[in-house]
């Protein structure tokens, strides 16, 4: 039983709580693919994809935790979001397991954020 991995607890918050925390200094980490991020994202969001699109298909970003660490540090106050809230749970779990302690998953993702009329940034063009 000692060899079993126990995932750290992920706390999921709704978009209203996320918006409130962002106004208090938390930072938003968008873990969607770069092309999705460019189509529209939460204002002030930083994009570090959890999955990468490769010629072999979609693969987990092997540098994800290190990339987040280099920008936010383990003590950073981070809200993790994706398109609908599924991928962000996986990303938040990885961060919590890596001892990031002030990390929250945003339930519903960008779809819920934009659907509630909260501010978004959209790029006029998406590069191929």
TrEMBL record:
SMART domains: RHOD (SM00450). Residues 22-122 form the Rhodanese domain. Signal peptide: none annotated. It comes from the Eukaryota. It holds the Pfam family Rhodanese. This is Rhodanese domain-containing protein. It comes from Penstemon smallii.
């Amino acid at each position: 039983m000692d060899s079993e991995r126990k995932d750290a607890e992920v706390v999921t918050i709704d978009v209203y709580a996320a918006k409130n925390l962002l106004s208090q200094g938390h930072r938003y980490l968008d873990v969607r693919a770069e092309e999705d991020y460019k189509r529209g994202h939460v204002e002030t969001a930083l994009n570090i994809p959890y999955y990468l699109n490769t010629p072999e298909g979609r693969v987990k970003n092997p540098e994800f935790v290190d990339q987040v660490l280099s920008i936010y540090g383990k003590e950073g106050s981070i809200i993790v979001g994706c398109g609908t809230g599924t991928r962000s749970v996986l990303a938040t779990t990885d961060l919590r397991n890596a001892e990031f302690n002030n990390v929250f998953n945003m339930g519903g993702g960008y779809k819920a954020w934009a659907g509630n009329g909260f501010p978004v940034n959209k790029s006029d063009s998406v590069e191929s």
